[in-house]
Design a protein that fits this description.
Blueprint (H helix, E strand, L loop, with lengths): L4 E8 H4 L6 H16 L3 H9 L1 H10 L5 E8 L8 E7 L4 E8 L6 E8 L4
Antiparallel strand pairs: 1-2, 3-4, 4-5
Length: 119
């Protein structure tokens, strides 16, 4: 299944972090380094060095007019999801229906209780 959804754009840093004086930016940077120096495990630091640290360093150096450019290529993880369902009609007025999505990591549940007005 192709979603055909590419998203891209840009926004100013001051719109993403609306604190005009840079307090929010500084808070994010300080919280990151506090986590990195005091709580992060070695495997977390390896991943953080590759992904997060460059972002945080750029954030720390940015002024309020900096522009954040982004792009996403959205895709479903799995193309198919199997559904198992059942329906039971107790009488002419009442019906119960259920469906379960069961394949992969796409889980879903539907429960329905219907009442039909007979005139």
């Amino acid at each position: 299944m192709e979603t055909g959804s590419n998203t891209s754009g840009q926004l100013k840093l001051k719109d993403a972090l609306p604190s005009a004086d840079g307090v929010k930016r500084d808070e994010i940077v300080n919280n990151y380094y506090q986590w990195y120096n005091n709580e992060a495990s070695i495997p977390q630091k390896v991943i953080a060095d590759q992904i997060l640290t460059p972002i945080v360093e750029r954030l720390a150096d940015a002024d309020e007019e900096a522009v954040i450019k982004y792009g996403l290529d959205k895709q479903v993880q799995q193309k198919w999801n199997g559904i198992i369902g059942a329906q039971y009609q107790a009488n002419k007025s009442w019906m119960f229906r259920t469906e379960l999505g069961v394949l992969g990591n796409r889980k879903s549940v539907l429960l329905s209780l219907n009442y039909r007005f007979l005139m």
